[in-house]
Design brief:
The chain is α/β, with parallel strands linked by helices. Helix content is 31%, strand content 21%. It has four helices and nine strands; from the N terminus they run H-H-E-E-E-H-E-E-E-E-H-E-E. It starts with a helix and ends in a 15-residue tail after the last strand.
């Protein structure tokens, strides 16, 4: 028993010393990888990260305005979601407005807003019309989950980062039923 305790003590002591020794470096180390020169440009290069941007078609998201009717709760939730995702990625705020007047680039969100398109119950469409992105859904549809799932997959997911840019291609078009995108529904995958 005493021999076993002595061996256990010796093994613990050896392991303790080996872990302590692993963290030490010789005082005459020649590793200069951690040395930062006095030149301020080197320091700036080490601390500055490349800016990441988001594009909707050919338009920088920060130059686009999100247009949504103040009375449309679903639309406002989608607008807040898009603006929030862009802010997380770029660090800057997108403009959310309720009028298309004097806007060059827009993301237009609302019930039945795409000309010449009538939605059936619980349907939604995300597509570019000319140079603007439209997110349209049937009246009374609960489109938030559906739209956010599609945009997460097509734009905001990390695998969509190309260089320093996330881009929703200008010919993007997606339509579906809002009910196919239910939180916790793991059996249906509309992207398969």
């Amino acid at each position: 028993m005493k021999i076993r305790n002595l061996l256990l003590f010796v093994m613990v002591a050896l392991l303790t010393f080996s872990f302590v020794a692993c963290g030490e470096t010789p005082s005459d180390s020649t590793d200069t990888g951690s040395v930062i020169s006095d030149d301020s440009t080197d320091t700036e290069a080490l601390t500055t990260e490349a800016a990441v941007s988001v594009f909707f078609g050919k338009h920088d998201a920060l130059k686009c305005s999100i247009v949504v009717n103040d009375g449309d709760t679903v639309g406002k939730n989608i607008a807040d979601y898009i603006a929030g995702q862009v802010k997380v990625i770029t660090g800057a705020e997108m403009s959310i407005v309720n009028s298309t007047d004097n806007l060059e680039a827009m993301i237009v969100i609302g019930e039945n807003i795409i000309p010449d398109l009538e939605h059936k119950a619980d349907e939604f469409v995300i597509k570019f019309v000319e140079k603007n992105l439209y997110i349209s859904y049937a009246a009374g549809a609960s489109a938030f989950q559906a739209v956010s799932a599609v945009l997460d997959d097509a734009l905001f997911a990390s695998y969509n980062l190309d260089g320093n840019t996330y881009t929703l291609v200008s010919d993007f078009e997606f339509s579906g039923k809002c009910g196919d995108y239910i939180i916790g529904d793991n059996e249906f995958n509309p992207f398969e």
